[in-house]
Design a protein that fits this description.
By secondary structure, this protein is α+β, with helices and mostly antiparallel strands. It is built from three helices and six strands. It has a six-stranded mixed sheet.
């Protein structure tokens, strides 16, 4: 049953958070912790994926370009079309201490500008 605050193509940001992320073979990688929206364009720029840990303890976080994710209705989650090495070596993200300054955004852009599709 579809939520009254959701359509076939629109979803509230609060519902995106917690949605599972899978790789191209359907293996669960983690879940969306939060999304980062570009203030100027209004477009989602990154999804912060949480992975690892147990019951939220020891989780690690990795910003993923929103453009690398597609929603798969069969899986009920997002599929990241990214190589595991690219994910593993992504710039670190600390929820309470990473500053989203221009230097950090440049590091993300440079990291994901590599050929990253699986």
């Amino acid at each position: 049953m579809q939520d009254q605050h959701e359509t076939n193509s629109l979803i509230g940001a609060n519902k995106v958070e917690g949605t599972k992320v899978f790789n191209a073979t359907g293996e669960e990688l983690g879940h969306i912790h939060e999304i980062m929206i570009d203030k100027i364009s209004g477009q989602v720029a990154y999804a912060i994926m949480a992975f690892g840990g147990v019951l939220g303890m020891g989780e690690k976080y990795s910003p993923l370009p929103w453009s690398s994710l597609t929603y798969d209705t069969r899986l009920g989650g997002y599929v990241a079309d990214l190589d595991k090495e690219i994910l593993k070596n992504a710039p670190e993200y600390e929820v309470d201490s990473t500053s989203w300054d221009n230097a950090y955004v440049d590091r993300l852009r440079q990291h994901y500008s590599q050929p990253y599709r699986t």
